[in-house]
Amino acid sequence: MPVADMERGDAMIGHNEAEAFSELRAALGPSGFLAGDDIPARNHADSSVLPPLPPLAVLRPASTDEVSAALVIASRHRLAVTVQGGLTGLCGGATPAPGSLALSLERMNGIEEIDGRAMTLTARAGTPLEVMQKAAEAEGLLFPVDFGARGTATAGGIVSTNAGGNRVLRYGMTRASVLGLEAVLADGTVIGSLNKMLKNNAGPDLKQLFVGSEGLLGVVTRAVFSLQPLPRWTGLALIAVRDFEAAADILSSARAELGPMLSAFEVMWPDYWAMVTGNVPGRRAPFADKHGLYLLVEGHGRDGERDGSTFEAFLEGVYEAGLVEDAMLAQSLSDMEAFWAIRDASAEIEPVLGEHESFDVGLPPGEVGRFVDACRSALARELPASRAVFFGHAADGNIHVMASVPDPGPAGHHAVESVVYGVTREFSGSVSAEHGIGALKRGWLGHSRSPAEVALMRSLKAAVDPHGLLNPGKVI
Fold first, then answer.
1. Contacts of 422 (CB under 8 A, 6+ apart)
2. pLDDT tens digits for range 230-240
3. pTM score, two decimals?
4. Counting Cβ atoms within 10 Å, is residue 12 exposed (0-12), middle (13-18) or buried (19+)?
5. What are the contacts of 168-171 at 24+ separation with CB within 8 A?
6. How far is 337 from 233, CA to CA, in rounded Å?
7. 168 with 396: CB under 8 angstroms?
8. Pairing relation of β-strands 190-193 and 219-226?
9. Do 309 and 238 contact (CB within 8 A), yes or no?
10. What is the Cα–Cα distance from 178 to 120, expressed in whole angstroms?
11. What is the pLDDT of residues 285-310, one digit of tens each?
12. 195, 271 contact by CB (below 8 A)
């Protein structure tokens, strides 16, 4: 088809792309192919700090067959594809690579089945996390993955990034909940089985290649998730302690006394606590005095009277042991929401910090306290004008750091990254605990992975995507 005959937005593309656009438009229909001025601004970037970049076009398939057809065409014409889900990622994984198509899974939305006997939920890739949570709850079951972006993050996205969240301590990362998977390779081959079985050793577990691979190896189109019994009781305590050693002792006691009831153990250092309670409307400080550390300890159970008594006995024990300086036990749903609102207010302090970098590092749990002290000292020494706050899922070693960038611009950001990731490497930690690598952390992957490991990642990528068309410039 001559370029002059193409629709609006195609006039500036080359002949090869124009031919591909014609084929893609025919395969996906008018709702499935957007180009030029019809490309929505939301498809220009994810939630990272990377600048927006418009894709060549947006592909919006409505089925696995259409995903396959689109990738066959893109592969034949050697057009790169950036995969997009809910666009909540913080590492640039879904921001379009230069000159790439954006493959949005937003039309592949919906829950296909909830099997109460098998305790599974099967969903299409574009289904929001919160939709899956509410559907499971309506059946008396719990979708165990949970985090702040639940309203917009989607099934395919949480699988491809192996999302974590507040309750990894009890339920594990997303990987632990994925039983079956369907994905489409770069050449359009559909791979996978919507398996519901807990035990399936019929060869290597291929679905694990795609969980956490950030779209490098294939496009996740459907998934089967295992569900859990819905808690009938939830206990939540906000605890103030003198230091991290006291917090570590409380965690040990919680594991011993609460066992599998323990569902979350969150830690907030004073810098984070003060910035939230002093600057975010509606986030008042519940304690009159200042303390060395603040904890959120949550338990899930099935028997309110029995489990509630066990939870209170645990709190009394750590108080009598001299580990607690002050504490509040949630008495209502509104109390729980108020406690969690302080922990979940990180996005609301971004204007206070100004230009900043957000870090998501993983540490051996026993090193968390020492890491925070070392990181704070390193920032003060190397970048004295930077302000940093620390908080996170300390029980599983996942600490979030938000550090302001004193000198705006790439060099300033790199300087902050060098300090934080340098300390992370000293502690044999991971530059990404749950957010992924994307484009922003690609240059730092070697701080956590050996050359042999990175080489193996490249070999896997070359085996399933020899032309490097899926998510180029991401992860490796």
1. 378, 447
2. 999 999 999 99
3. 0.90
4. exposed
5. 168/393, 168/396, 168/398, 168/434, 169/262, 169/263, 169/264, 169/265, 169/393, 169/395, 169/396, 170/144, 170/260, 170/262, 170/263, 170/264, 170/300, 171/144, 171/145, 171/228, 171/263
6. 15
7. yes
8. unpaired
9. no
10. 9
11. 999 999 999 999 999 999 989 999 99
12. no
pLDDT for position 1: 31
Write the single-letter amino acid at 441: K
Contact indicator for 18, 11 with CB cutoff of 8 Å = no
pLDDT in tens, 52-95: 999 999 999 999 999 999 999 999 999 999 999 999 998 999 99
Query: Could you count the other beta carbons within 10 Å of the beta carbon of residue 452?
Result: 8
Q: In what order do the strands lie in the sheet with 233-241?
A: 326-329, 233-241, 293-301, 262-268, 388-393, 398-404, 356-362
The single residue listed with the structure tokens 């290649």 is 209
**Binning pLDDT at 50, 70 and 90, where does residue 8 land?**
very low
Type of residue found at 116: G
What length is written for the chain? 476
Give the C-alpha separation, 304 to 380, whole Å.
Answer: 47
Which burial class, exposed, middle or buried, applies to 333 when counting CB atoms under 10 A from its CB (0-12, 13-18, 19+)? Answer: exposed
- The pair of structure tokens assigned to 147 is 């985090």
